[in-house]
Amino acid sequence: MGVRLRAVRRVFENDVVAIDGIDLDVAPGEFAAILGPSGCGKSTLLRLIAGLDRPQGGTIEIDSSLSAVPRGREYEGRADIAYVFQDAHLLPWRTVLHNVALPLELMHATQSHRMLAARQAIEQVGLAEAVDRYPNQLSGGQRMRVSLARAMVTDPKLLLLDEPFAALDEITRQKLDEQLRQLWLDRGMTVLFVTHSTQEAVFLAQRAAVMTRRPGKIIHDARIDLPIDRPALIRATPAFAREMHAIYQSLEKGGA
Amino acid sequence: MKKPRIDFLSTILPPALVLLAALAALEAYLRLAHVHRYMMPLPSSIGMALLNDTDELLTALGWTALSAVGGFAASAVVGVALAIVLSASSLIRRAFYPYTIFFQTVPIVAIAPMLLFWIGSGPFPVAVCAFIVSVFPVIANTLAGLMSTDPALVDLFRLYGASPLSAMWKLRLPSALPSILTGLRIAAGLAVIGTVVAEFLVGQSMGKVGLGILVVDGIHQAHLDIAFAAVLLASMLGLMIFAAVNTAAWLSLRRWHASAK
To answer: Closest-CA residue in chain A for B157?
Structure first.
């Protein structure tokens, strides 16, 4: 499903203007990266889109008219929006299986559907052997994969990710980037991926929007001209470097 | 997950030897310095009191345990429930939290005789004192735990339309569990102290003899050995409640919380 933002503005209680005048269109099924320095309001933007926060000005439209599960409504089989945080944020007292099943549980899905969907989602991120483990028995990368499986368990149409792999080491992060891209190719959901890594944005996305520091504004929005099939080694090709160069230039212009 | 293995030689033996050595040294000092038994009873005569007056001491222990455990259980239930209510809104917190501190500051020494006046004699007013003395740490720790729930997880629950009730049951209370157990550990000791102090003040009039009364009577009648034996049993009682809380903590936290490792 698509996202359309017009002149979105969010001011915090302490009068800090987090973002101002944000226009952004994301087409259904698109993979868009939002890049910018820390504190430029990227997370604020995602929270607004997820409906976890309200803007002071502007409009946020999410088509197909659904935003998550409307309160008080019966379970409809899927939540349309899923959110992946900077850290895994799992419930430490639940096993991997029951962490992944949590969204369906909160939406009152049947027990059998919950377990089946959770097992499938866990398998999809390659953690089938860890279903009965507790989060403190997993590595950082495994925990993040559980978090990803938890987001995917409702089969969302819009996946929002807030610097999800920033705390991981480079090698683990690249593996997870590849896994996320595969998930997107398989499922075709719309993805909004916030990151401060240019390389990650270029590898993952079809398109990158660059934000400036407070008040956050989008100063560069361009397609990433790389083939749909992106093997791990594409990161070391001239075409990849050209795309990174373009983004570095606009980051420079934005004073980042 | 490993079970805690009690290795007799390395776990029990060292503190037992320290205790025996300390008691022997105390015994030797008291005998050699001719300290009068009205000043300080010999460890051996405390031991004899435990053996000779077993029935009286155990009956007293029973009544004290009833009041202390009753007061502690009330603290656990009421303390957690009050903290849940307080956590619901900042308005409720501002309005009521200052008054919960009353439990912390109330002079139990002054209140205990009044309670006896109001609700009659027997173990019940004593349990009420134990409750008053021990409830505040449960409220304060539970509230702190409930208020420090991971905000990202609160967002996650909102995103999937969870009701406040299910967020409380599935997220806030389990996250607060380590803090709740900390509150209960503190309350365990306080409940026993509250009971013994209340028994001191309530005295014989309550008809049932608890350890606190044996302590007072022992001092007044120059039976320090019995007084000390009663003190010993009272601390054992505190230890047992504390151990019960620790066991509950280990059972509930061992899989996921660092404090139970």
So the answer is: A106
Q: How many CB atoms lie within 10 A of CB B254?
A: 15
- Residues whose CB falls within 8 Å of the CB of residue A123, separated by 6 or more in sequence, listed in order: none
* Phi/psi of residue A162, nearest 5 degrees: -105, 95
Suggest the residue from B2, B149, B156, B172 to mutate for an interface test with chain A (most A CBs closer than 10 A).
B156
Contacts A–B by Cβ distance under 8 A: 62
**Rg for chain A (alpha carbons), in Å?**
18
Residues of A in contact with B257 (CB under 8 A): 92-93
DSSP line for B173-195: HHHHHHHHHHHHHHHHHHHHHHH
ipTM of the assembly? Answer: 0.88
User: Which two tokens mark A220?
Assistant: 């560069």
Name the helix (H) or strand (E) containing A109.
none
* CA distances in angstroms from B128 to A50, A138, B141, B186, B191, listed in the order given: 50, 47, 21, 17, 10
Cα B89 from chain centroid (whole Å): 30
Q: How many CA atoms does the CB half-sphere of A89 hold within 13 Å?
A: 22
* Residue range B175-229, pLDDT digits in tens: 999 999 999 999 999 999 999 988 887 765 556 688 988 898 888 888 889 999 9
